[in-house]
Design the sequence.
């Protein structure tokens, strides 16, 4: 019975679907998280009677033939890079990107990681670091005697120092952009790595054509839509149940065949 | 002759195939652009001697339900659905293939590709390339693609004289099998949506129950026939 294994592919696919949905729901409050979607493709087909086969000497052809599909397979789990909402936190080192782009950070391995989670902080040396303590690229150091930090939409970091009339510019945050954002490899910790699929990064100042701007004192929420996720979860669960019924039914048919004598 | 046994056997073998079709439909309940299929049976009348015929059942073809699946919103600018007839053309290593699975991505050369990496073909047969760092990609209803208000190409939708004769090759792709694709402007391309599978779960479940019960009753028929023959043999032996 092919139907047993076909239904098994269906159950596996729906299980993956539920896993993707549950990860979205689990990350509903993760800063800068982009929701994922599981996509499926039909598996290969077995031609029992090829469409277009000649069915007589006079040249008549079979219009559609018999092709038995062998189930389903996951095609991709792709990220939907829609902008999340910005929430005001009033923390002057919380940065949200309004538009396209990623902050680049130096990972402990020496590689460059990319993130949209702009909950930054200062290292003991005064360097701008992510919540994990990884250095933001290019390195920006905020002097110890700074009394306030202002980051404008173009990413210029301006610090006011006690006793000085004008604030001084200590650096500019750069954003990285990719030909195909969806091709970035997620490595957890809100971080992504460049892959051949994403293409190489281009760096530019925030606000350049094609790049987003920086919003200080705000964070980008995840773009997960709970209602959509729950409805997807319901359809995935029902599909899973239906496929399990197919297994039961195929079993009954095999039982009927076995009792034939 | 054992005709009734053969009748029951033909019934059971086509039902087993029908079950394969139903399980494939249900497995693809969530596959975008999937079209459900069912089998067409035919009565085949065989002569078994003088003035005697027996009717057997035979599966002749697959029937593909071409109705449009519901369009579901994904808000992803690269998810495209076709409202109306037609297929997107994609370039594979084996030549042009057609699909209604409109989930596209960009590759590292900024070309629109399917999740398998096959480039989507625009009018003129060239892949559609988006300029790097484009802020927004807009696909109009007629398939015109613009990046930041600059027109960069048009996605062509193709129809076929006999869409049922397209051969499914898996991965949501169809092969033309000698039919000439015709570009159409009748169908709309809808951005941010994907066409869900048109499989109706409830209808498939009822059909599945029917299939299982028919299979069981065909089995009963064979079993009863077997008993009848045994009894006949017993009676004949007792008489001797």
Sequence:
């Amino acid at each position: 019975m092919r139907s047993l294994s076909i239904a098994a592919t269906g159950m596996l696919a729906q299980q993956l679907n539920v896993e993707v949905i549950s990860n979205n729901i689990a990350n509903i409050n993760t800063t800068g998280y982009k929701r994922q979607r599981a996509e499926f493709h039909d598996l290969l087909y077995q031609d029992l009677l090829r469409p277009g086969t000649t069915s007589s000497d006079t040249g008549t052809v079979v219009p559609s033939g018999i092709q038995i599909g062998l189930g389903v397979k996951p095609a991709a789990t792709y990220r939907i890079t829609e902008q999340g909402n910005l929430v005001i936190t009033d923390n002057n080192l919380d940065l949200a990107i309004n538009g396209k782009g990623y902050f680049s950070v130096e990972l402990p391995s020496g590689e460059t990681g990319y993130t949209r989670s702009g909950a930054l902080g200062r290292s003991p040396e005064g360097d701008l670091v992510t919540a994990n303590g990884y250095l933001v690229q290019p390195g920006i150091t905020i002097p110890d005697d700074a009394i306030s930090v202002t980051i404008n939409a173009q990413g210029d970091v301006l610090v006011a120092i006690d006793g000085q009339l004008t604030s001084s510019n200590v650096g500019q945050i750069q954003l990285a952009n990719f030909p195909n954002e969806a091709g970035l490899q997620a490595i957890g910790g809100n971080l992504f790595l460049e892959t051949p699929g994403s293409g190489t990064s281009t760096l530019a100042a925030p606000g350049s054509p094609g790049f987003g701007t920086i919003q200080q004192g705000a964070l980008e929420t995840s773009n997960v839509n709970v209602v959509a996720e729950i409805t997807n979860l319901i359809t995935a669960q029902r599909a899973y149940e239906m496929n399990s019924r197919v297994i039961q039914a195929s079993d009954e048919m095999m039982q009927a065949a076995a009792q034939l004598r | 002759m054992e005709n009734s046994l053969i009748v029951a056997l033909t019934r059971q073998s086509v039902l087993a195939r029908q079950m394969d079709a139903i399980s494939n439909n249900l497995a693809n309940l969530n596959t975008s652009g999937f079209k459900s299929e069912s089998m067409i049976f035919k009565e085949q009348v065989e002569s078994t001697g003088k003035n005697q015929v027996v009717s057997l059942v035979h599966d002749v073809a697959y029937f593909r339900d071409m109705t449009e699946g519901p369009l579901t919103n994904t808000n992803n600018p690269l998810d495209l659905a076709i409202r109306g007839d037609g297929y997107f053309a994609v370039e594979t290593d084996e030549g042009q293939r057609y699909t209604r699975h409109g989930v596209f991505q960009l590759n590292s050369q900024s070309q629109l590709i399917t999740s398998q990496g096959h480039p989507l073909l625009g009018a003129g047969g060239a892949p559609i390339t988006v300029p790097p760092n484009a802020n927004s990609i807009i696909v109009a209803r007629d398939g015109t693609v613009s990046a930041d208000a600059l027109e960069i190409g048009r996605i062509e939708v193709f129809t076929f004289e006999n869409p049922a004769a397209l051969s499914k090759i898996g991965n949501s792709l169809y092969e033309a099998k000698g039919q000439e694709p015709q570009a159409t402007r009748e169908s709309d391309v809808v951005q941010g949506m994907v066409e869900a599978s048109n499989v109706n779960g409830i209808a498939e479940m009822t059909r599945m129950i029917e299939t299982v019960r028919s299979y069981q009753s065909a089995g009963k028929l064979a079993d009863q026939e077997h008993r009848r023959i045994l009894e006949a043999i017993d009676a004949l032996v007792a008489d001797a």
Residues 3-66+199-239 of chain B form one domain. Chain B touches chain A through 70 residues (CB under 8 Å). Chain B is about 25% helix and 35% strand.
